[in-house]
Amino acid sequence: MRSFLVIGNYAHTEPFKLNDLPGAGRIDILCRCVAQALFISHGIRNYVEVYLLLLGPPNPPKAIKIVGNEVKRMSPDERNIAGHIRKALKKDANKGWSKVHSGVYIANKNLEELLRELSSKYEIYYLHENGEDLHNIAKSIKNPLFVIGDHYGLTQDQEKVTKSFARKVVRVSHISLLAEQCITIVHYLLDRNFIEIKSKPRNF
Ligand code: SAM
Asked: Measured between alpha carbons, how far is 21 from 25 in angstroms, rounded to an integer?
């Protein structure tokens, strides 16, 4: 398995207008991250899970889980993915995961609760340009979950919590990149070690 957790510090936590994703606390960033994490040409990476942590107004925190192996009727365009997030935000969120529809779940979890849960399933890595070069350790990585910030990055408190669960801080470049670019490079580096890339046909 391979997983990504993207923290949207401003991402709105109530259903938003699909015509203005940047205005909904940069939901567009989260959508592009989902697209890069899940989709390949004519297929879905069925061994990938994506977690989105929405911390904007009015009802934070909202965690959304998208499971590559289960998701249906999702396509790589931002508007389609935003539609799935919007639908999830219409549902009541509790401490446990509630299913919205195939492969999409929502819960009321903060960063620490989420990382505590996920650290029993994944090795946690924090993506930051000051970290160790991922290229050098990619071969030794099994079952990773990469924590990624939004356009402003993680707050100091979020960094502290993330580092307390993380095995390592890793970089994909010395340059500060867009969150979705980091995901693409992570896949590239880890895919090099895959003998066979498993994917399922896209389900529209
Ligand atoms: N000014 C923000 C900061 O200092 O974190 C930039 C945030 S960047 C647009 C979005 C996220 O991508 C960052 O929070 C970090 O997780 C990740 N990131 C950006 N460049 C990276 C790099 N070269 N290596 C690893 N992760 C990176």
From this structure: 7
